[in-house]
Design brief:
Structural class: mainly alpha
Radius of gyration: 29 Å
Order of helices and strands: HHHHHHH
Number of helices: 7
Distance between the termini: 71 Å
Helix content: 40-55%
Shape: elongated
Number of strands: 0
Length: about 130
């Protein structure tokens, strides 16, 4: 299973201390639950095994426990982050805004109105001296 990358190396080390019949029990539990043991689970399976108290039920109870979800750390370069904020934002302000709520809002790349240019009719009125923008 390690060669096939179905189970990590560190839990495998703990599993290697189990008796052959206990390893067979574990393989059955892995197949029935469609899950491999985490390091913590492998260590908790190993302990009763060493004490001679490991049973099918205790192994299955450990294997059916809910695992903690993986945490992800994401790093975004300043250049990529800049496209989501106005040019006037400092990196600190972008970071504060990100902490406030990428989860609360749907962010799209920041685009100044009309791509940073004034609409033609407003530009034409400004050039002609008209004060009204409507």
């Amino acid at each position: 299973m390690v060669d096939e990358k179905k189970i990590a190396m560190t839990p495998t080390v703990e599993i290697s201390y189990l008796k052959p019949e206990e390893q067979t029990m574990l393989l059955t539990a892995i197949e029935s639950e469609q899950a491999t043991p985490s390091l913590s689970q492998a260590q908790r399976i190993k302990k009763p095994s060493q004490e001679g108290k490991l049973t099918d039920d205790s192994m299955l109870n450990i294997m059916t426990e809910q695992k903690k979800p993986e945490q992800y750390n994401v790093t975004i370069s300043g250049d990529k982050l800049r496209k989501y904020f106005p040019r006037s934002y400092t990196l600190q302000r972008m970071e504060d805004r990100e902490q406030d709520g990428f989860t609360n809002q749907h962010y799209r790349p920041y685009q100044p109105m009309c791509g940073g240019k004034r609409p033609r009719r407003i530009q034409a009125r400004l050039e002609s001296g008209t004060k009204s923008l409507i």
